[in-house]
Design brief:
InterPro entries: ATPase_AAA_core (IPR003959), Lon_Prtase (IPR027065), P-loop_NTPase (IPR027417). This protein is α/β, with parallel strands linked by helices and 536 residues long. It has 23 helices and eleven strands. 29% of the residues are buried.
Length: 536
């Protein structure tokens, strides 16, 4: 877990060497001595013997190890791990507490953790979840080991990523790198924190020297007190309205650093700095709000219902994380903008299929391309404490954690956590922002490609394409939109009986909104091509 490779760079060789070293009686086939060595348990002795024979079979293989042999080994290793965990759980609690009190490490516990590590490296997701706890125990227990900094970085990365593991094969082996990903994430965080600390110390020194120089200069004569100054001093600060939140704290020279940084931050945030930004009240009549949304999108009635449930009991719009999953072209993207306009919410849309990094959360002001995050920029532009942030095709986001760019999913892990979003560390302004009142609407064609840890943070809602029963509600809206886009009179979009009959025949049992738009446009073009067709 500190970065060293296992013996022989394989799970079976490493476990073989460990068993032979800790329990040499398994090699000598001295069953009574082995039973005595494990505290008199015949079952435990049989478990160690069978595990040794399983590993020895692969160690002694002369013609290589094929895929079937590896799969058999993984299955046997899972059975051994399950049984070992069960047997260890049966130990009397007082024995375990006594060992912990005197710092005694039971070799059976070490074997259990070693097997968990190897199961995780062979692709076992359940073992990877357990491995996170193993790392935490060793980080607390192993105080003086040489690899302690790497162990602490591994634990830090595991907590930051919430135990998430991306399948990444170690070159030249059949093992996955699990703890290496956690260690890299932890080391990167420590390096960034150290760099930020050095810059703050340097800027503080520069500012202290400048202040000392200013004090050495002749102080200006004190100004005479004035009535206007007195009134300003005793003025009562107005109470922020209900739902108002200070999203962007007041800017200080120490937080901004260089003067150029101060200027760029003020230009990006403007009047939002230090201001209590008002929230957006929820609808007074939720029933009317929901009815209007369903009338516009009759094939997705669950969407306004889910949004209404997420805002239940609130006076102002607040946090929400909803993901719409369904086929392409049915209006998942368009319904987000409609909800925002229908509710008076600021709106931003981000195409995740074009994302190759984590710049959604903003980039450092030290870079030439430094900029605010998408969500923070939306709130600053509209001077509101909340808004609707839409992330389209979230499953198609690319990028890699091993590069400087990172991944969109990593940023969303923090933005979609209540505690982290309320104290969001903005890389552009170097300030702590309150983004906890933002509502998020994600869209996807499938859940494949979305990390399970991210799915746990949102409500997933399956939506389907409109059917024939929705045609009467959708066609007038689609036709009116086509007329607006072509600069035609809205009356030109009213279909007659023959056109309705042709449309129903072509539409059939239903399909995507895009297909319906093409069918309606075809009818309007056909009517326009026939001069004898009367206009409504």
């Amino acid at each position: 877990m500190c970065g060293a490779r296992p013996t022989g760079d394989t799970a079976h060789r490493d476990l073989y060497e460990h068993l032979v070293t800790e329990w040499p009686d398994v090699v000598a086939l001295d069953r009574p001595a082995l039973v005595e060595a494990v505290g008199g348990s015949e079952v435990m002795a049989e478990l160690l013997s069978s595990t040794y024979l399983t590993c020895a079979e692969l160690v002694g293989a002369r013609h290589g190890i094929d895929r079937v042999a590896r799969r058999v080994f993984q299955t046997r290793l899972l059975s051994a791990s399950t049984e070992l965990e069960r047997l260890l759980a049966l130990r009397p609690a007082e024995d375990v507490e006594l060992d912990l009190g005197y710092g005694i490490h039971n070799p059976l516990d070490d074997l259990d953790e070693r097997i968990v590590y190897h199961r995780a490296s062979l692709g076992d997701r359940l073992a990877a979840d357990r491995l996170r706890g193993v790392v935490a125990r060793h980080a607390r227990r192993d105080g003086n080991v040489d690899g302690r900094p790497a162990l602490i970085a591994t634990l830090l990365g595991a907590e930051m990523l919430d135990g998430y593991v991306e399948p990444r094969c170690i070159p030249g082996t059949h093992r996955y790198d699990v703890v290496g990903q956690w260690r890299e994430a932890g080391e990167e965080y420590v390096a960034q924190a150290a760099l930020a600390t050095r810059e703050r110390i340097r800027d503080a020194i520069v500012e202290a020297r400048a202040s000392a120089s200013e004090r050495e200069a002749e102080e200006p004569a004190p100004k005479r007190a004035s009535l206007a100054g007195f009134r300003k001093a005793v003025a009562v600060v107005p109470t922020p309205p209900p739902g108002a939140v200070v999203v962007f704290p007041a800017l200080s020279k120490s937080s901004a650093g260089k003067p150029d940084n101060l200027r760029d931050i003020k230009a990006a945030l403007g009047d939002a700095l230090g201001a209590a930004l008002p929230g957006v009240p929820v609808p007074d009549d939720w029933d009317a709000w929901e009815a209007a949304a369903v009338a516009r999108w009759p094939h997705m009635p669950g969407v306004p219902r889910a949004i209404r449930e997420a805002q239940a009991g609130r006076t102002h719009w607040g946090s929400m994380r909803l993901c719409l999953v369904g086929p392409a072209g049915i209006g998942k993207t368009a319904i987000g903008r409609f909800i925002a306009e229908h509710s008076g919410l600021p709106f931003s849309r981000y195409n995740a299929d074009n994302s190759t990094d984590n710049s959604y959360g903003g980039t450092s002001i030290r870079w030439n391309s430094g900029h605010l995050g998408t969500v923070a920029a939306m709130l600053a532009e509209h001077m509101r404490a909340t808004g609707l942030a839409q992330v389209d095709e979230i499953e198609k986001a690319s990028g890699h954690r091993g590069t400087n760019g990172g991944r969109l999913h990593d940023v969303l892990h923090g933005l979609w956590d209540d505690e982290t979003s309320s104290r969001w560390a903005c890389p552009f302004s170097a300030m702590t922002l309150d983004l906890s009142n933002v509502a998020y609407l994600a869209t996807a064609n499938s859940l494949a490609g979305i990390p399970s840890s991210l799915r746990d943070r949102m409500r997933v809602l399956e939506v389907s394409a409109p059917g024939s029963e929705h045609l009467a509600a959708l066609v007038p809206q689609v036709a009116a939109q086509a007329c607006r886009e072509q600069g035609l009179d809205p009356a030109w979009g009213v279909l007659d009986g023959v056109e309705w009959q042709a449309l129903r025949g072509a539409w059939g049992q239903g399909g995507s909104i895009r297909r319906l738009q093409r069918l309606v446009s075809t009818i309007l073009r056909a009517r326009d091509a026939d001069p004898s067709t009367p206009r409504h």
